[in-house]
Specification:
single chain, about 200 residues, alpha/beta, Rossmann fold, six-stranded parallel β-sheet, 6 helices, 6 strands
Length: about 200
């Protein structure tokens, strides 16, 4: 028996509105249909894992403690919509900006794979049966590096990234979706459970 199948989600621009940096709790808003999308994944026994770069810590835009508060708010909102996350992993580093320990050439900043390696170990995940969803070319590349299918959502930075930069990407997404809900519908179809709600 192999590991679990999972869906790895970017945070800003995929789950919540892209506002540049969520430097205050009041700047965190879930995007439409996100709770419904994650609930579908929960129902069909996917592990749902948030993997997010949060270099605003290294840049001095907000303290690391705010990330935990934002993630608590995110989990509370999802719980109210009947959805939950199996794990949240974040990278507070930046290679060129800020002060140590946050300024460092780390192994966890996407598209590096350090965060996933932790998630795979913690949650017994099989990346070859898994999916990555995000709004940046780095998320697509991240999916390729871990051997998962990748989906670009056109929320957040997605539309601009897709329109202007896709020609420069090393990897292309397996699917381009309007939003997280459409991405999840595509995953369920790939898994032979499409159309089930």
């Amino acid at each position: 028996m192999g590991g679990h199948r999972a869906v790895f989600l970017d945070r800003d621009g995929t789950i919540n509105e892209e506002v540049g940096y969520v430097n205050h709790l009041d700047r965190f808003y879930l995007l439409p249909r996100v709770g419904e999308a994650i609930h579908l994944l929960n129902r069909h026994r996917f592990k749902v894992v948030v993997v997010t770069n949060q270099s605003g810590v290294a840049r001095g835009y907000f303290p690391e403690s705010l990330i935990h508060q934002v993630h608590q708010k995110m989990m509370d909102h999802l719980k109210n919509q009947g959805a939950y996350l199996d794990g949240i992993y974040y990278c507070p580093h930046h290679p060129d900006v800020g002060e140590p320990p946050y300024r460092q050439q780390c192994h966890c900043r996407k598209p590096e794979t350090g965060l996933i390696e932790r998630a795979v170990q913690d949650l017994a995940i099989d990346c070859s049966k898994s999916y990555v969803i995000g709004d940046r070319g780095a998320d697509v590349e991240f999916g390729r590096r871990i051997g998962s299918k990748s989906i670009l959502v056109l929320t957040g930075y997605g539309k601009g990234e897709w329109e202007y930069f896709k020609g420069h990407w090393k990897s292309q997404p397996d699917f381009v979706a309007e939003d997280l809900y459409e991405a999840v519908q595509w995953i369920l179809q790939q898994e032979g459970i499409g159309g089930m709600r």
